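Incident log, structure service

09:12 report received: a user says their structure output differs between two submissions of the same chain.
09:20 pulled the input from the user's history:
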Amino acid sequence: MKTGPCFRPVLMALSVIFAGHLSCEAQLFRKKTKEAAPSEQTALAPGQFEWHPERSPSGPLLIVVSIDDQVAYVYRNAVLIARSTVSTGAPGHDTPTGVFTILQKNQDHESSIYKGAKMPNMQRLTWSGIAMHAGELPGYPASHGCVRLPMEFSAKLFGITEMGGTVVVTKKAAAPSASSKPATILLSSNVEPGSRPAAQFLGKTMWDPKRSPEGPVNFLLSGQDRTLYVYRNGVLIGQSPVHIERPDLPIPAGVFLMLEGVEKGVMNLVRGKPARPWTTLALDGGSHGNAVQELRSRLQIPDEFGKLIYELAQPGTILLTTPEASTPETRSAAGFTIMRP
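09:34 re-ran on a clean worker, output below:
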């Protein structure tokens, strides 16, 4: 997905809190397809990979790295096009779980932390030293926190990703699935400290797109706040209260990625606009059935605000939903973090 100007280094991130870290029980919202789930596929030996980009020639990418499986899965437009063995962080140097954006790409990178260690086909996930890159794969976690990839696979992956692409690091493998009834809300994993939600502004509407004229647009929906936040290139440009039916029932926690095309015959949250297809990935280990359908049935967005955000969302836009509060003042527990360190 196109991202506009390069992201600026930021030392703090928007923390979006879930009931706990992305768990070993992470499940997916998926329909039955002929494609095998990650857990059903033939095991790969260390250094092995599969590469089938012809399965889905276009559409937004989603990379899912499973620490438990030591495998990376690459989806394009919700279709699995590649998978590869990896080596994540050794004990004491754990690879953080979370939702990341690709912040920097460099084919001939050398580490500034580990005495010039070579990191071919480096794709940076955090400014504190976590990246995907080519490296040794012994068959178990052995890195200093990075995600090591086979050399050939790292080059192929480097060739199809773009700045701002989405990488989800989990404990247990989980696959996305195409939704049949999409929502029209979303989050940015590139958030400036001054653009984090604040308790004093909850329940109020704001729209100021001039604060960030260009860049990727993503959205955050907080069930406890009952507020939808709009970010462009990491800057909060708008927010609006929303109505949630049965507010005592937590909304599904998940990552949503907008795909290409439209879905005919599906009622959209934004009246008068065609529905977009989405791929979804559960983050809280729970089972919500069809998460997108549930959101659509329970969520109401003010008409004018809905029309504004509909025009901004593009294939590759991320939605992140959490039943928890988005503000430090109202948050009750720590947990999963959407990172931009």
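09:41 both user submissions now match this output. Likely a transient worker issue. Closing.
09:42 reviewer note: The helical segments are 151-160, 291-298, 303-312. Residues 218 and 231 are 5 Å apart (CA to CA).
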